[in-house]
Design goal:
The protein has 161 residues and is of the alpha+beta class. The protein folds into 2 domains: 74 residues; 85 residues. Helix content is 64%, strand content 12%. The chain has 4 helices and 6 strands. The strands form 3 sheets. It has a two-stranded antiparallel sheet. The longest helix is centred in the middle third of the chain and has 28 residues. The radius of gyration is 27 Å and the shape is flat.
Amino acid sequence: MKKCNTEIMKDIKQLELERNELLDYERDNYYVEYTQGEKIISSDYDYKKVQMKLEAYDTELRRLRGLLAYSNVTTIVDGFDMTISEALFYLNQLKYMENRLRQMVNKKELTRKVVYDGKIEYKMLNFKPSDALEDYTKVKEMIPKLQMAIDRTNLTNMIEC
């Protein structure tokens, strides 16, 4: 059976949810509390059975994550000449750059303030805010294009499961 990367990601998320629910069940049921003289209520908790289920989840999660990891390092994102893995890293770099440039765009080229001894202190930028704005605009436009290309690749790349 073939699935796209996005389906595999959803399968992983679902398995992790089910695994966490099993861990919650175990946490709540691997012991019985009672007071002296009180009848001990038996539990349906079965240690070996729970461990087998957890191992099955872990095995399947490793398998699916391995398939996805292989796909991420071998599948090229259309229009960007880089793998999904590289594109995801590049996306993070672009987001960092966007935040950094956003702060630089609104700076005044020259500012002044009065310091403690009454002297005037000047701060002059070593760049033109208009240059930062130009780069900021390019980066801001690139982010959704890259994100859409990654999403499209994740939806169209099929992996044999």
